[in-house]
Design a protein that fits this description.
Layout lengths: L1 H17 L17 H17 L5 H17 L10 H21 L5 H25 L4 H21 L3 H22 L1 H32 L5 H10 L1 H6 L3 H9 L1 H10 L4 H7 L1 H20 L4 H7 L4 H14 L1 H41 L2 H4 L14 H44 L12
Helix pairs in contact: 1-8, 1-19, 2-4, 2-5, 4-5, 6-7, 6-17, 7-8, 8-9, 8-15, 8-19, 11-14, 12-13, 12-14, 15-16, 15-19, 16-17, 17-19
Length: about 450
């Protein structure tokens, strides 16, 4: 189930980026969006790098000319990228294949010279791919995901060093600045995507929390299918768990919105001034609800799974734990986030070791070239190989991509496990209930 959620999120982010025209750089979401002139310079750099890797540039120049002619005929103006990123990569791949074929067909070369020239061609091809990767446009949600990935190791490092200013800065950047920037750039798309993410994530988390709760309390093992059916029977409450508090905040903000309407009416400023405390009180209530509900969001799916609670009960129980013991909850929440971040770092390390071991194991069968030609030790760059070796390398790259997705799914499962344990702990400290008390499903 966690795997399906990760695949859904990845597809949703890609679709959202595909229907928008944002261009961010490797610096991430918080950096300024790239200007048209900077993007054009990047495209020219990529084209120049591809041209240097080609043996014959005639076809490449013809493709550029055709793109320019198409722009002139439809009157759409100058595009930032004359050729797409995929087309540039294809030309670079074709250029490398031509170079390798020319080297292999040159009978005047000895084996050492042929190997040296082949390696040089592979390095030139890798440089072209590196430039394309560096300057390619990045969508809004891709930049947001990169920003969050960078924050995880920085958070753990600051925590280990007991650097409170750095810890607060990283937390603010990941939890406040990056989401606010996302909203600032595309408010409607961000709202739609986040609603889908919260709803589907809550549904899957409730199923996983039910499985975890029964395992922790009774040693009872639920299958993924049984967990999914449990959440499906309560689909409405599972989907609305993170959304209902947002709706309540919007309802409370309706009064301050009316205050703004009064200011636009004749003599309305006087009435608005008299009624200002009412608007202030409702805005204060909205702020409290927003902060408490956001802080307790980790407990929502666990409350629904452990207590078999309906929507209002799950939300109010979770919020009551936060309000009753705020300092204790901050400690539990911090511990959970650190555990999740450490899990992400360990998973990333495991992935890197797996890639290296895969390359070494593959080199036994495919030859040392698979290791030598893997730019920056990334298996995704072994497309510099040719024939069956290149096909084998691509298959290995696909398996590693699937493995990376499985590891992301593990992190989502870990989050559900932490949610369940946090709920049990807070319930024991606040209500004094034992862990073994888990509500029977109706």
């Amino acid at each position: 189930m966690a795997l399906l959620v990760v695949l859904l999120f990845g597809g949703l982010f890609s679709l959202a980026d595909a229907v928008q025209s944002h261009d961010f750089t490797q610096r991430g979401l918080l950096a300024a969006e790239r200007s048209t002139s900077d993007a054009r310079l990047g495209a020219m750099r990529a084209s120049a790098a591809v041209r240097e890797s080609l043996v014959d540039t005639a076809a490449f120049d013809a493709a550029l000319a055709d793109a320019a002619a198409a722009e002139s005929s439809d009157g759409s103006g100058v595009r930032t990228w004359d050729l797409s990123v995929g087309e540039l990569r294809a030309f670079a791949q074709a250029g490398f294949s031509d170079r390798v074929a020319a080297i292999e067909s040159d009978d005047a070369l000895d084996d050492s010279t042929r190997a040296r020239q082949t390696q040089s061609a592979a390095q030139q091809f890798a440089r072209a791919l590196s430039v394309i990767e560096e300057v390619r446009p990045r969508g809004l949600f891709e930049a947001f995901a990169a920003e969050e990935r960078r924050a995880a190791p920085q958070f753990v490092t600051a925590l280990i060093d007991f650097d409170l200013p750095a810890l607060l800065a990283v937390s603010a950047r990941a939890l406040i600045q990056a989401p606010m920037r996302l909203w600032e750039v595309a408010p409607w798309m961000t709202s739609l995507v986040l609603l889908i993410v919260f709803a589907t994530g809550s549904f899957a988390a409730t199923a996983l929390c039910r499985m975890s709760a029964l395992d922790l309390a009774r040693g009872q093992k639920l299958s993924a299918r049984e967990g999914a059916w449990y959440a499906a029977d309560r689909a409405t409450r599972c989907l609305l768990l993170p959304i209902a508090p947002i709706g309540l905040v919007l309802v409370l903000l309706f009064v301050p919105a009316l205050y703004g309407v009064l200011l636009a009416l004749p003599m309305g400023d006087i009435i608005a001034a008299v009624l200002f405390p009412i608007a202030l009180v409702f805005a204060l209530l909205a702020s409290v609800v927003l902060i408490v509900s956001f802080s307790a969001m980790l407990l929502y799916p666990a409350a629904a799974a452990v207590e078999d609670a309906d929507l209002p009960d799950a939300i109010t129980r979770s919020a009551s734990f936060v309000i009753a013991r705020p300092l204790l909850w901050l400690g539990v929440l911090s511990t959970s986030l650190v555990t999740l971040a450490m899990g992400g770092i360990l998973v990333s390390l495991l992935l890197q070791v797996t890639e290296v071991l895969t390359l070494i194991a593959a080199s036994v069968v495919m030859g040392d070239s698979i290791v030598e030609n893997a730019a920056s030790s990334r298996l995704g760059s072994v497309e510099t190989l040719s024939s069956t070796q290149g096909m084998s390398a691509q298959i290995l790259s696909g398996w590693l991509a699937l493995f990376r997705t499985l590891l992301s799914a593990y992190l989502f499962s870990l989050l559900a496990e932490l949610s369940t344990r946090a709920y049990f702990y807070m319930r024991a400290r606040v209500d004094g209930e034992e862990v073994a008390t888990v509500a029977q499903s109706a």
